[in-house]
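Researcher: Please predict.
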Amino acid sequence: MTFDRFCRLASIPALALCLLAYTATCLQAASIRLLRDPDIEHGLSQLAAPVLRAAGLNAKRVRVLVVDDSSFNAFVIDSRTIFVNYGLILKVTSPEMLQAVIAHEAAHITNGHLARRMQNQRSAGSAAGLGLALAVIAAAAGAGEAAGGIAIGSQTSALRGFLSHTRAEESSADRAAASFLKSAGISPQGLVDVHRIFAGQEVLSIANQDPYMRSHPLSRDRIRAAQAFVATYGDTSSPNPQADYWFARLRGKLSAFTRSPKWSLRRAKEETHKDIRLMRQAIAYHRRNDLGKALKAIDSALSIRPNDAFYHELKGQILFENRRWANAQASYGRAVQLAPSDALILASYGRAQLAAGAVKPAIRTMEKSRSLDFRNTLLLRDMSQAYAKLGQSGLAALVTAERYALVGRLDDAGLHAKRATALLPRGSATWRRAQDVLLAFEQSQKRNRR
C-alpha cells in the first residue's frame, strides 16, 4: 500500500485550461491524498462492477479509489472516478452497504448532476458577489452595520440556493441508487442501513438543525424513502459469497495498514477466511518489523491461493521494504505474470527492478504502468530517478515537472519544465509535454499577479 496524490483535474492540459478560465473549480483543484493498493482497488472493482453496469456505466473505465481520510464520506468530481474515504469502508458492515454508497455516487454521474452542480456553484458565487458589492456601497454611505448584514445575508441566501439544488440531487440519487441495486440483484436494504449510519453522524438534534443549510436531505427522510422502496419493490437478492469475500478482504487489508498491529493480530482471529486472516497477520508482523513471521504468514496465504497476484504483490512489498531487492523483484515479477495489466503492480515491479540495478528493464516496466495510469506521482518520482541514472536528463526533468504539476506545486513544475524544454528535441512529443506544464505554470503566475 502506498500514499499518493491525485489531481482533481484530468490532465496537465486540463489544468492549464482551467487556470486560463480562472473558474471556481480551479480554486478547488488541490490534490487528494489517496491510499493506493492494487488488492484493495481490485476488491472495490469487483463490488462496483455490477452496480456500474446497472447504472449504464462502463465498469472498466469508472474507478473507485480510496481517500486517506477517516471520516464517513464518498464523492465524485468527474465522470470517471468515485472516491470513498477509508473511514467509510471500515464503518460499513456489509458489502451491500458499500455497494449502496457506490450506487449513490454513480447516480450523480448518470443523472448529470456534475455539470449542473458546477453551474449552480457559479450562480451562487455571482449572487454572493452581488451581496458584497451592495455591502461596499452601504459602507460608503456610512451604514457599517447594515453593510455587514447585507453581505452576510446575501452570501447565506446564495449558499442556501446552491444547497437546495444539491438536496434535490441527493434525493434523486438515492432513488436511482435503489433502482441500480435492484437491477444488479443487490439488496437495497444496504441503502437503508447506510442512511442509518448517516443519522448517527448527525451531532445536532433535529430541533437545532437548519435543513436549508444542509447539502443532503435529513437522514430520517432518506431512511423513510429507502424503506418505502424496499416495501414497494421487495428484496429479491440472493447471497453472494464472492461479494462477501472481497468485502472482507479489502476491509481486512485496509484495517491492517491503518490500525495498530496489536489490534490487527487480535481481531484477525475473528476472520472466517483463512487466507485473509493470514494476510492481516502478515501485514501486522511486517509493521512490527518481524520479517520472519511476516513471510511465514504471507507464504501460508499463498499456499491457499498460489495464483493470487495480489498476495505475491504483498510479499514483494514486505521484501522490498526490508531491502531484499532481488527477492522483491522476483515476487513482483510473479505478480506481473498473473496480472500483467495492473498499473500499480507494474509500478512496484519497476521500483524493485530499479533498486536491484536493472535500470533499462525498470524504465520499460514503468512506461507500461504509466500508459495505464498516468496520474501515479510515486511512479513519476521513480521514473525521474531511472532516467537520471541513464543520463537522460531531459526526460528526468520532464517527469519531475509533471509530478509537481499533478500535485499542484506549479512553481516547482515550471522550473523543471523550463529545464526539460531546453534539453529535449524541439517539437518532439516529450518537448510538447514540457510545454503543457509550462503553460499551466505561466497561467498560474498570471492569476497570482491579479
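Model: The first strand starts at residue 2 and ends at 6.
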